[in-house]
């Protein structure tokens, strides 16, 4: 089996390339490696491999955005299998799907490879967009936009103090965020949620770097789960946010969760959106966006003993 590593040098706050340079010294099998040059490059690399006549293991060396781009290019091709080495900031992909911890674990996989088909989330606006772990709108997406725009983030990252910026923007957004109205439709059902802080559509349980937002999500059941957090005071939101790490937030009446093959969502404000934790513009005002899932559409490595970062 051919092995191609796709390395995103921008992942992990710019530390992924350094990590790769150390990692590549430990690889005892033949491989190819592509260091991405820009956003979208990983998708092009995976797409080019669709014409390959041999089985290819694509190993994403980055974070959730890198893996999404690879899977968007590889989905539907039976001979392309995707695995990951965690080198991003949040690495929720590696929590929800199989991941290699070191070169030795790839050697073990290559000796006896196992594959498993997984679902791919999608939503359609002007064009179709894919998500592997989750896509959401509101409070959390606004924080990630502000953090990424922050001029001091890069500077603080040098001292591994980037989390300070995150905490500051959580507080700032908590004070200023304007809650919105969200209409959720599926089949003939229509539900209107007022004072919404955020809504997330999930394909697997984790988002935001280890928060178990959707504890019951499974990435091979042909369903996506919607979580809507609404009607909370600013103070209680902080409290509920804290419980998301353990997945116990679902017991609050202000946290609505539902599971369906498809949701149609309409927001009454231009709220910020994320796709797998990457900023992705805003949700169009009063325009219905359909979230769905392509069942078992891409092939993941199946590592029996799931290895942690
Ligand atoms: N050479 C590059 N320069 C700048 N950005 C790039 C490059 N290659 C890829 N990207 C973009 O970097 C973005 C962030 O990558 P990724 O999500 O993998 O890392 P991360 O944000 O550190 O990790 P995580 O999402 O797990 O927190 C991706 O959306 C991808 O499009």
UniProtKB/TrEMBL annotation:
GO MF: ATP binding; kinase activity
Alphabetical UniProt keywords: ATP-binding, Kinase, Lipid biosynthesis, Lipid metabolism, Nucleotide-binding, Phospholipid biosynthesis, Phospholipid metabolism, Transferase
Record-linked InterPro entries: ATP-NAD_kinase_N, Diacylglycerol/lipid_kinase, Diacylglycerol_kinase_cat_dom, Lipid_Phosphate_FormReg, NAD/diacylglycerol_kinase_sf, YegS/DAGK_C
Any one biological process term the GO annotation gives: phospholipid biosynthetic process
PROSITE patterns for this protein: DAGK
Keyword presence, Lipid metabolism: yes
UniProt-listed Pfam families: DAGK_cat, YegS_C
Coiled-coil intervals: none
DAGKc domain ranges (all copies): 1-126
SMART domains: DAGKc
Cofactor: Mg(2+)
Family, as annotated: Belongs to the diacylglycerol/lipid kinase family.
Protein name: YegS/Rv2252/BmrU family lipid kinase
Taxonomic source organism: Planomicrobium soli
